[in-house]
Amino acid sequence: MTALSSLETPVLLLDEAQMRRNIARMQSHMDKLGVTLRPHAKTSKCIEVVEQQIAAGARGITVSTLKEAEEFFAGGIDDILYAVAIVPAKLDHALALIRKGCKLRVITESIEGARAISDHGHKHGHVYEVLIEIDTDGHRSGIKPADPLLIDVAAALGDGARLVGVMTHAGGSYACRTAEERESFAEQERSRCVAAAETLRKAGFACPTVSVGSTPTALAAKNLEGVTEVRAGVYIFFDLVIAGIGSCSRDEIAISVLGTVIGHQREAGWIITDTGWM
Ligand SMILES: Cc1ncc(COP(=O)(O)O)c(C=O)c1O
After folding, report:
1. Hey, which CATH number is domain 16-243, 3.20.20.10, 2.60.40.2660, 3.40.190.10, 1.20.1250.20?
2. Does residue 215 have its Cβ closer than 6 Å to ligand 1?
3. For residues 178 and 19, what is the distance between their CA atoms, to the nearest angstrom?
4. What is the mean pLDDT of the chain?
């Protein structure tokens, strides 16, 4: 084994055995709750890591850029959810990936977005598979489950697109500090996303996929009735933020950066390292 002091820093240190335990922890929790795990691959951006998640039972991946989709597709992953609302200028890129054989699903949260996707599909003889983003915590984006806009967006998908489900990311769970808060946030994420799916179904739209997830809510969930898949990303390595929330212990963090102290301003009480400025 290489002595840490002999490494040229800054250098990323990955505890692979711990990473495998993190993969197993999330996968077994999802298996117990009876849902598919579709890990967010933006965390690792690494095909070897994603292959281990898939070998452990994950089905498909989530990405946050089309570049990630392209790289992972080239690495052999062909079931991908691009989980950021797609804009018109990216549709040619998305369609090129789909035409190469990638089962790429896209999301939207607006009438304009829905029309743009559908018009593009119509023009190029393709039917996009689309999920509508739901806002379950007022934290970032999406449509509130009870907002009539939900039905309008579904209706705006014309013959170049097909609604395949709803998705949400309860990023507000990062403000949770107790097990009770995490569990109730997970239930809020589940129930509100399922309610949106029910509303769409009652209005006559098929909505087979109900996709939720963040690492804190995924690990805290006790019941995922009505949910079909969970997306979680950071659990693969964990970090100090997740340890602060209480979703993991510090010992479960599988990744760190090793740096070297390269200077010392004694009077100021500072050290200078080669790991970059924060
Ligand atoms: C849309 C979406 N889904 C899932 C996740 C995964 O959440 P986490 O990193 O907490 O596991 C993220 C993370 O930002 C996200 O943006």
Report:
1. 3.20.20.10
2. yes
3. 24
4. 97
